[in-house]
Amino acid sequence: MNIKQFLIIFLIFIFFSIGYYRWNYGFYPIPNTFRGLVHVLNMPSDLYDPIILDDFKFSEVNYSKTYDLNPKYLDQYVLGVINTIDGIPEYLPFTGELKLEFFYKNKIIYQQIDSGKDICWLLNNQNGRRLHKSVYLSYFNLPLLGKYKNHLKLKVTVLKSYLEKGEDRVTNKLFIAVSAKP
Question: What is the pTM of this model?
Answer without folding.
Answer: 0.76
